[in-house]
Design goal:
Radius of gyration: 16 Å
Shape: globular
Structural class: mainly alpha
Low-confidence stretches: none
Number of strands: 0
Strand content: under 5%
Largest sheet: none
Order of helices and strands: HHHHH
Distance between the termini: 12 Å
Mean pLDDT: 88
Helix content: over 70%
């Protein structure tokens, strides 16, 4: 299997598990933590595109999964150089870096928006950090499994 397909599949798996966790935390804490829905609101409120703000609109979902694949692309570069056997310590380090990147990006998006969605920011960033650890675990594990099934040339 070629690297681009492995990156896409690992991105889908990692983003799916991360998103499940975000939806779980949102429901448990009765807060708006769902990344695709928040992205739709940011897109709509910034008038970037005419988006009907609802959780089923494709814009937020495509953006969310697209960013997940970009994270895995960055992991791929690391994987080729240092992450051949992503154990718990490497997953924690890469996941922590991913979490810091994501929290920083969301802070910028919220502050740049003239009318950002309302949620408990501290709670959101906390769950986002955990969600990125989950993302990293599943994305790297998926990539490793797919890579191990690829015959060497």
């Amino acid at each position: 299997m070629k690297a681009p397909l492995k990156i896409i599949l690992a991105g889908i798996v990692g983003t799916s598990f991360m998103t499940l966790y975000s939806y779980y935390r949102a429901k448990k804490e009765n807060q708006q933590y769902e990344e695709p829905e928040l992205l739709n609101k940011l897109i709509d409120r910034n008038n970037a595109v005419d988006v009907d703000v609802n959780k089923k609109h494709a814009a937020g979902w495509v953006a969310h999964y697209g960013v997940g694949m970009l994270f895995v692309l960055a992991y791929w570069v690391l994987y080729r150089r240092a992450l051949h056997s992503p154990g718990p310590v490497k997953v924690l380090l890469v996941g922590s870096a991913s979490a810091a990147t994501a929290v920083g990006a969301w802070k910028i998006m919220f502050s740049a928006s003239p009318n950002p969605p309302d949620n408990n920011r501290y709670g959101y960033y906390r769950q986002l950090a955990i969600a990125h650890l989950i993302f990293t675990l599943f994305a790297l594990s998926t990539y490793k499994i797919l890579d191990s099934k690829t015959p060497s040339s």
